[in-house]
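Practice problem: predict the structure.
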Amino acid sequence: MDPLTERTPRVVSAVKLLRAAERRKTGRFLAEGENSVTEALATGAVHDVFVTEDAAERYRDLVSIAEGRGVRVCIVTDRAAERLSDTVSPPGLVAVCDTLDVPLDSALDSGSRLLAIPVEMGEPGNAGTLIRVADAVGADAVILAGDSVDPHNGKCVRSSAGSVFHLPLVRERDTTRVLDSVTAAGVTILATAADGEVDLDDADELLAGPTAWLFGSEAHGLPPRWPPGPTTGYASRSAVVPNHSTWRPQPRSACTRVPGCSIGRYAPNLGFLRCGHPRTGFTH
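Answer:
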């Protein structure tokens, strides 16, 4: 059978999933590349796999897995693969998957011990990196609060290296509802801030219980009302991520990139990495 082209209705429908509005409408999204498609197939959430002839040869085992699980595999032209991708160099392998986000209440039902809560995060690459780090340390969920990026965005999915398929993802525009629900679940909310009151190197006791980490936007960090103070907000405490550089000045705002990576260093205080998390199996 001839490869599907960029004009084939099935391909045309899939290309529309590059737009957030279409993802919301259909409840589906695109996962691109070997890592993402491998993890997607492991969840059983894949409807179609589009692959070029060259990529089908490169990823022969992956194509066999998809066919063995009853997933429809479609050979497409290079031009069709380019239309299905939002990258400069498409890998020629794309899966159509069910969207992954879950309701806030369901993410908090199982006695959450470690949560990552990015607030107003607009950069999909940062979102994917944070999801990947949270997954690696055994977080129970990532809750994207406020006007944050869609975790099904192609760049976010790629940056997560498949981690979007490993842990619950929540999208909730009402940040107040997020913080109220987390507090009601008995989780201590910790706001990362450049001028925080607690140095995380000295926060073992604070981190010993269930903790939710708030991360601000790339440009501005968290709104000033959230760390405690004269206008006390929802955070139980505010914490500064230690800057151990001898030459680089402390950043003015606690954006996602550096504080997000700090989960990997300080999450062991919650006991996940010391004993081995049931999902990741990582040990400290």
